[in-house]
Amino acid sequence: MANSGGEVQEGQTVVVQEEEAHPYAFHVSGPRNVASPNWRDLINSSWKNENHKRTVLSCFIQAVYLLETDRQENRTEENALAPNWWRSFKYKLTQTLIDERDGSIFGAVLEWDRAAALADMVLIRPSGAPKAVLALRGTLLKGPTILRDIEDDLRFLAWESLKGSVRFKVALEALRSVAEMYGSRNVCVAGHSLGAGFALQVGKALAKEGMYVEAHLFNPPSVSMPMSLRNIGERAGFAWNRFKSILPSSSETEATSEEGETANTVGLRSWIPLSGYKTSMGLKNWVPNLYVNNSDYICCSYTDPDVTENKQADKENAGPGNGQVAAKLFVMSKGKQKFLEAHGLEQWWSDDVQLQQALHNSKLMSRQLKSLYTFPASQPTQRTPQ
Q1: Residues 349, 30: contact at Cβ < 8 Å?
Q2: Which domain of life is it from (predicted)?
Q3: What contacts 157, CB < 8 A, 6 or more positions away?
Q4: For FRET with 126, which of 4, 207, 244, 378 sits at 20 to 30 Å CA-CA?
Q5: C-alpha distances in Å from residue 357, one per residue of 83, 195, 332, 360, 367
Q6: Calpha distance 319→332 (Å, rounded)
Q7: DSSP letters of 154-182?
């Protein structure tokens, strides 16, 4: 117990030291071998390197986790942990995305900070560096936000869609806004875990509108889990339906899935070969980047190749796997790991990261991107209010 001014000051000094050594401080747990932009980037931009881009974008997502942690722990501007995770790369925070249900921060828009760059003699934005990034965090297992995070996790588990969530609408509006402001080629969206699920779906929604935004998805949730549960038997199916009935917004999506198909549709019978399209139809590939760890059961199913089980199915299920790339799949190759390590975000900026780019298309990504390559409906699609 402090009972004198000197002891209070000593206690304050300890607090400062604890802040400096916080495990989530950028200088403690951030990347070691990634320098801030400098004049050399004007000649040979670091952003053209895939490892650099992956590192910076994963740091931006970490910043969003810390924005919410800073909020929960009442950190001030002076001792906040989040800012150094974007300032180090000459970006600035221009918008936070708030979940109106609990006031939590689940995303942020970060834009190139021209003033900060000029101060370090970086006269122009390096080639390949996005003008704006929408970063989306995943589930945060802390009291104030865990309920809404888990609610959206269960929504995705049950419906394979996040469109019923208020976060989807907010994220889509934010991404569309910066894409219209800067041009879709100058914008990217990145997310981890549940945030990767949102990033995939808002990116796909914009692709349907003809705006192709670069997407980077870290440990994206697999859609195979609900399909497996649906197929384990009649009794399990009854229990599954009871479970879905208690989830939020079930009435909005129970009859149909995200793409307007029946919920039990497993096959890809509405696929047609992409080679049958002409560029005049305004269609092209939207190719998100997936970062997957095989020891992470939440995302490991994305490494399943897009192959059919028999020749008849092969005729019926022609799709982007037929000579086309559905996604760029980067697989962590560290051998067997514990789940928390395999699902963690920190691995993606680690110095010893070893990735292999998958040569096959992902079956699950093909399902996720199916609607981008099917014929348009006979009637125009109308945007329904959320």
Answers
A1: yes
A2: Eukaryota
A3: 225, 226
A4: 207
A5: 32, 22, 9, 9, 20
A6: 26
A7: HHHHHHS--TTSHHHHHHHHHHHHHHHHH
Distance CA 273, CA 312 (A): 15
Look at residues 17, 52, 47 and name the one whose alpha carbon lies nearest to residue 112: 47
Residue type at 120? D
Residue 88 phi/psi, 5° resolution?
-60, -20
Higher pLDDT pick, 302 / 7: 302
Please give the model's pTM, rounded to 2 decimal places.
0.76
The SS3 of residue 181 is helix
pLDDT in tens, 360-377: 566 777 777 777 765 444
Residue 86 backbone zone (phi > 0: left; psi -120 to 50: alpha; other: beta): alpha
d(CA 163, CA 333): 33
SS3 245: helix
Evaluate whether 186 touches 154 at the Cβ level (below 8 Å): no
Cβ contact 345:61 at 8 Å:
yes
Report residue 148 as tokens: 């809404």
Mean pLDDT of 180-198: 95
CA pair distance 1, 105, nearest whole angstrom: 36
